[in-house]
Amino acid sequence: MKKTTMTDLILIITALLLALSAGLFYSYSCSVNPGLKQLGDSEYINAMQSINRAILNPVFFLSFVGALVCLPISVFLNFTAWDSPKFLLLLGALVLYACGTFGITIFGNVPLNEALDAFDLKNAAAAEISIARKNFEIPWNNLHLVRTVASVISLLLVLISLTISSKATTLITS
Question: How many CB atoms lie within 10 A of CB 23?
């Protein structure tokens, strides 16, 4: 049996954090979004405001930000050559997660969440509530789909990298 190194351990932790993050986004896409779609406009906005406030917690941040911290460390620790399969897989995972998951969330979903949070549901007319939902739901769900796919593919790349020996240093062998 192979001895587990610190590099291996960090890569396993990276995979775990990515799995937690990707799993959250995936389960949200499969259950929460379809459930919310069935709600009336007022109930939808109330539920999303509540969810968006509840997600801001240390457990979520541990996996979401932790994956972004561990990925570049794993890329660095697994660098053996510029064309190393393991390095390239991890670099791809980093780019996908940093841009497609983290970036989309910070620059897309979060501004929509903040705008929805500022919406005064209690004092809004039905037409205003309907407009607020339309301005939020479709763009938010589209962005969520992108970050879900990006996080799942990022996880897949990391899992594949776990199967590659560190001795497999280049794509082209002589």
Answer: 14
Is 172 within a domain? no
Residue 124: Cβ-neighbour burial (10 angstroms; 0-12, 13-18, 19+): middle
How would residue 168 be classed by pLDDT, with cut points 50, 70 and 90? low
Contact of 158 with 14, CB cutoff 8 Å: yes
Domain hosting residue 16, numbered range: 6-162
Report pLDDT for 2.
Answer: 73
Q: What is the pLDDT of residues 51-83, one digit of tens each?
A: 999 999 999 999 999 999 999 999 999 999 999
* Calpha distance 74→44 (Å, rounded): 40
Could you tell me what percentage of the chain is helix, strand and coil, using 3-state DSSP and rounding each to the nearest 5? 80, 0, 20
Query: Residue 109: pLDDT above 90?
Result: yes
Residue 10 resides in a domain: yes
Domain assignment present for residue 174? The answer is: no
> What was the pLDDT predicted at 173?
47
Q: Residue 45 carries which side chain, given as an amino acid letter?
A: I
Q: How far is CA 119 from CA 33, 141, 150, in A?
A: 20, 18, 30
**Number of other CB atoms surrounding residue 57 within 10 Å:** 9
Cα dihedral 7→20→72→6 (10° resolution): -10
